[in-house]
Predict the 3D structure of the following.
Amino acid sequence: MEKIIGLVALICAIWVIYDVWAKGKMGAGSKILWTIFALLFSIITAIVYYFVKKK
């Protein structure tokens, strides 16, 4: 079970980081903050990013 959660967390972090740096139209400071949060709190950050930035 821990491996599945870890894999989901990794995928969430990669998705947020990719989306922020490849498609995000925000400043460098915001990109760095989203990247740090994605690395620390991957699943929660992905959910917040989806509802805040993707709307």
Observations:
- The CA atoms of residues 15 and 46 lie 8 Å apart.
- Residues 2-53 form one domain.
- Residues 2-23 form the longest helix (22 residues).
- The mean pLDDT is 92.
